[in-house]
Amino acid sequence: MVSEQLGPVTAHMPAIVQDAYGDASVLRHQRIARPEVADDEVLVRVHAAGLDRGTWHLMAGKPYLMRIAGLGFRRPKARVPGRDLAGTVETVGSAVTRFAVGDEVYGIGRGSFAEYAVAVEGKLASKPASLSFEQAAVVPISAGTALQALTDHGRIAAGQRVLIIGASGGVGSYAIQLAKAFGADVTGVASTAKLDLVRSLGADRVLDYTRDDYADGTDHYDLILDIAGNPKLSRLRRALTPTGTAVLVGGEDGGNLTGGMNRSLRALVLSLFVGQRLAWFVAKERAGDLEQLTELIEAGQVTPSIDRTYPLDQVPDAMRQLASGQVRGKAVITI
């Protein structure tokens, strides 16, 4: 049931679709039927969509555990990829109370690599007035993950020394700014070519992972965010203070079956027997985080870092750039 609608109904829309798992070659640009909303959902006319590592995993169907968990065993159940979005409310379900037709919103939806996408009301917030649609579209998943890693699981406090491994990526670029906003002293780890970006985001110190060893005993940190997803737990522990916390955000090198799940589970078990705390989490998608991020954005403490924009029909190229590790900060898809 729909309570409000803006403009004439368009039967079809341009979108990126995939009918099989694989690399970026499985993505196709075509016209498909426009989605419909349930009572608690919002139809958003997408102006821009963000690209994140999780979307790559959903495209590739890896780790395979994701397929078993219900995303589609042989092929994806959701044909249109994309989750981050920013746009204008086109239609609202009958139970929606926070938004009206014409509102500018951002958040997490289903199938945002398309002209229209559906989002649950509780995963949207009003778009920050100071951001363009392109900037707003790259905030929700990456910045929300960074926020939860630092606050909910890292329990960050002012004055702490924080190490961010993988500081030049989507989550890392926000983690630097958020940690500084919370009053921490921040060291960022990245590749040689991306150290300038990490500095520009506000890191107090930068380490080049090709020549600097954060676990050589020179420095110890109260909180480590491991976004790179591949250091051994022993290395993380050597870099922590005796009662420090390491939060595992990524897990890219654990194999096709389980990804980084094995390392994450080992961390949780080990944490029961040592003075240091090793945490792992699956990020939640909630409007409250977006509203907190909006306050920080409007205060000038957090700014999206966009590497490049791609039109909708170039999503496969954007995916290839992301998979190759060449993206600095975030990439955005314009509709």
In short:
Helices cover about 25% and strands about 30% of the residues.
Written account of the structure:
The protein has 335 residues and is an alpha/beta fold. The chain folds into 2 domains: 2-139 and 304-334, Alpha-Beta Complex (Quinone Oxidoreductase, Chain A, domain 1), CATH 3.90.180; 142-280, Rossmann fold. The chain has helices spanning 53-60, 65-71, 133-137, 140-153, 170-181, 195-200, 233-239, 261-270, 287-298, 315-323; strands at residues 2-5, 12-17, 28-33, 41-51, 84-93, 104-108, 116-120, 124-126, 161-165, 185-190, 205-208, 221-226, 240-248, 277-280, 306-311, 330-334. Strands 1, 4, 5, 6, 7, 8, 15 and 16 form an 8-stranded mixed beta sheet that branches. A 6-stranded parallel beta sheet has the order 11-10-9-12-13-14. The chain is globular and about 60 Å long. The protein starts with a strand and ends with a strand. The model is unreliable at 1-9 (pLDDT under 50).
Described by strand count, sense and barrel closure, the largest sheet is:
8 strands, mixed
Helix content: 25-40%
Poorly predicted regions are 1-9
The secondary structure category is alpha/beta
Number of domains: 2
CATH level-four homologous superfamily name of the largest domain: Medium-chain alcohol dehydrogenases, catalytic domain
What is the end-to-end distance?
27 Å
Query: What is the strand tally?
Result: 16
Top-tier CATH class of the largest domain: Alpha Beta
- Which geometry do the CA atoms define? globular
What count of helical segments does DSSP give? 10
C-alpha Rg (nearest Å): 20 Å
The proportion of strand residues reads 25-35%
Which CATH architecture of the largest domain is right? Alpha-Beta Complex
Overall mean confidence score, pLDDT: 90
